[in-house]
Structures are given as C-alpha cells and as structure tokens.
Amino acid sequence: MKLEGKAKMLRIHFGEDDKWNDKPLFRAIVEKCRELDIAGATVFRGIEGYGASTLIRRPHRLSFSSDAPLMVSVVDTEEKIQRLLPFLDEMLRDGLIAVSDVEVIKYVHQDGVRS
Question: What are the residue boundaries of the structural domains of the chain, listed by start?
C-alpha cells in the first residue's frame, strides 16, 4: 500500500502511568492501531507537561512512579482515523486528542513485514 497526499494526524496526550485493562495505555493504543491496520503509530515521552487537570506530569527520578507525559502520534487516512476514535473515547480517561490535516510525502507498506 502506498499513502501519499492528504491524510490526518491524530495526537493523543496522557500520562505514562495511565492503564487500559491492566496494561500501559500507550501499548494498548499502539496495539489497537495495528489491529485496525493503521499506517503507523509512534509513542513520544515528554520531559514535562500538564493538561486540563493542571497536574504537572514529569518523570520522578527517585520513585518507581514515572508519570511522564506521553503522546501517541498516528497518521493515516481520515476514514481509518475515524474508525479509531470510538476506541480511544473508551480507553482514555484523562487526556487530550487532537486531529489535524497533514500532507504525506511518502509511506510505503512492505508486505509480509510484521514483528
């Protein structure tokens, strides 16, 4: 599959300690994206941030808790992004979902490549 031209980028912001069905939320989101055959998803770990709760999220150096801010970035067609949104609505307790228009320069799916 080749994806070029107009697409949507979805960014999901939440905390590293957030869970979905006893697994890290970021992992659950990436797995759902793969299940829905979305072109790609990448998890970014932030240094510090806050959202609607005004709770500042940052990694804790001397603690087992590491509630750093995370962002999952997803890019695909509008149709596939729309299919993902109901699942995210159910999975995300606190956080922010932002959707924007993007121009994809090149994405080529390699058949048979799965880990």
Answer: 5-104
Cα(50)–Cα(54) distance, rounded to whole angstroms?
5
**Of 68 and 31, the one with more pLDDT:** 31
Quick one: which H or E segment has residue 43?
strand 40-45
Whether residue 58 contacts residue 68, with contact meaning beta carbons closer than 8 Å, is answered with yes
Topology annotation, domain 5-104? Alpha-Beta Plaits (3.30.70)
Could you read off the pLDDT of 44-67 as tens digits, one per residue?
A: 998 888 777 777 766 666 555 567
pTM, entire model: 0.83
Closest CA to 69 of 29, 18, 33, 30: 18
2: Cα separation from own chain's centroid: 22
